Amino acid sequence: MKHRILAPLLFAAFIALVAAGCAASAPPETPDTAASLSPARQVPTELAPTITASPSPTPAPPLPCSIAFDSDRDGNREIYVMGPDGENLRNLSNHPAEDWDPAWSPDGKQIAFVSNRIDDGMEGHFIYVMDADGGAVRKLTHDNRSDYPDWSHDGQTITYAADDDIFVISADGSRKSVNLTNSPEKDARPVWSPDGRQIAWLSGGDGGWNIFVMDADGENAKQITHNGSVNNAAWTVDGRLFTHMDNPEAGCSNCLMDADGSNAVNAGGKGEIQRYLPFWTGNGERVECLELEKEGNADIFQIGEIFPEMFNNLTKHPAADRNPDWPAACGDQSNQALAETGQTVVDDEIVIGYAGDEKSQAQRWDNFRKACDELGVRCVNGDIQELIAQGADAIIQNTSSTFIAELIPGIQEASAKGIPVFILDAEVDIDGVYSVTIDHHSWARTSLEWMFAKIGGEGEIAYFDLHPVNRYSDSIEDLLADYPGISVVEKRDGSYDPWKMKPETVDFVKLHPDLKAVWTSFNMTEALRGLDESGLPREGWPLVNCEATMDGLETWKRMRQANPTYECIALANPPGVAYNAVYAAYYMLSGLTINQSSLGGAYGNSLYVDSPVISSDNLGEWLEKARRYHMNVMDQTMTPDEIKTRWFAN
């Protein structure tokens, strides 16, 4: 957990920045979509690391936010440690060489640091690791000019910079280091995301630094800032990036942005940054902790409204005290330990957790965060056990009906602790658990009834029910009873390989020349492409339900350009569920009661959202909306008032 954000600033400059923090300022222009990297920056296959972002371990017992920092107060730089309020100062490294840049392991048991001590006859500076009491010192890296160590969330891996590249190495030294960037540019200051899935770093040089982000294995590297004015980067507790920008033309000084560089906003000044980079005092009060320079001297400060004039100097020494760091696992979890000692900590802040963050469903995470920002509540992410440990008051579990079964034990654990859980796009029968989803039977019937009406209620059809847990086949067979003139000539169930959709659609239309419609619950775009490759006259194509994705709508548009009379229908599935769920959780935690008449579903605990219908009439409008808001999946959220009036009792 690196918190070196304001180290380069003069104290007076920071005061000016703080004063400006309350003034309204226009948010910066959202950066363009991150540019692809040049071939020189791509990671060669032979250098691809064997490590992966592993599932988080069981959270460690609560621990205080002890601070490690480096200081030259004894004539050379050493690693010191002190309690969260500056007490019990100790020199841990106590070595004639220079030791600097400490980094706590997440569980507070070890500290990585940089040293130029001569070891194994090698001169330079390398990463070392020692126990939290200063014992068991061992050399970890053998890459000269190693610097800026940072631990992964599970404590298993350390990332660092060396010779202007970014590396990773197993924290116990059992595996060799791996070069993740291997580029001609200067790369520095890597920091690991809270969920262990990504690494951010700075690239550039004295001419200007920008932030890049890549997966933990070095893949999918992207540049997310472009003005060359950043000097640092830190991950916030909710998975965003914070940086200070020197260039005032960037639109913000303290900048907060999504991990892809979008949604950049000014994080504020005095008293605001603690919301994103919190430090917890010994009394469990949230403040900021960072290095500041005052009159040319660097000290470690706490900043918060609990202090007179907001600032509390922890070190107060004429030497240079720099690079404060503390264990990632410390924090408001320590309230439990404080309670056991007879101290009382009151925290009325609402905390909402998000579990099941999937790259393929990034819009749900974005919508979750959007709702959190609107409400001003603290939001965290991780698996359910981590969220319980972090004191989440409610949990949003992202999933689907296909994968929900494996998540049930964790959901039951949260529910048993009295934590309401809102499941996205799946339904389960667990007390205290609510589903935010569409009515899948209504979703299927809407598109089927449209098809049946278009073919005049007669003719041959084929269907693919590829999500048997949603039992679309039941809806289809029930509906067919009302249409005796329609016959099913082909059908497939969940055992079918959906990636055969395109070739089999070609086979279907050739085998059944009178086929009027093909309905599928998945891979609709592949079915549409199958028609396009069938060689049949476009005027004779059967109807296909289209996919409510950017790719699906673009394909549909191309088909209409070739055949303007071809019609289709697409229904979003499911839209806006994460945003809606955050508001539902917030209203419940604020004391509102869910209206029982608003609940539906097989278990009577589902909060249904509507599925927007995309037709030939509004296809252009949806494509424009998708491009404007960078939507891969067509999305539509309810308004906060709609959520309150539709789902909650007056």
Show the helix and strand layout:
Elements: H1 11-21, E1 67-71, E2 78-82, E3 90-91, E4 99-104, E5 110-115, E6 126-131, E7 138-139, E8 147-151, E9 157-162, E10 165-170, E11 178-179, E12 186-192, E13 198-204, E14 210-215, E15 222-223, E16 234-235, E17 241-244, E18 254-257, E19 265-266, E20 279-280, E21 286-294, E22 297-303, E23 311-313, E24 321-325, H2 335-340, E25 351-355, H3 362-375, E26 378-381, H4 384-389, E27 394-398, H5 408-416, E28 421-424, E29 433-437, H6 440-454, E30 459-464, H7 472-480, E31 486-492, H8 501-511, E32 515-520, H9 524-532, E33 543-544, H10 550-562, E34 570-571, H11 577-589, E35 599-600, E36 606-608, E37 613-614, H12 619-628, H13 640-647
Features:
four-stranded antiparallel sheet; single chain; Rossmann fold; 650 residues; disordered N terminus; 13 helices; 37 strands
CATH architecture call of the domain at 351-438 and 574-622 and 633-647: 3-Layer(aba) Sandwich
Unreliable residue runs: 3-61, 333-348
Task: Please report the first level of CATH classification, the CATH class of the domain at 351-438 and 574-622 and 633-647.
Answer: Alpha Beta
Q: In percent terms, what proportion of residues is strand?
A: 25-35%
What is the radius of gyration computed over CA atoms, rounded to a whole number of angstroms? Answer: 28 Å
**Termini gap:** 44 Å
CATH fourth-tier homologous superfamily of the domain at 351-438 and 574-622 and 633-647: Response regulator
The DSSP helix count reads 13
How many strands?
A: 37
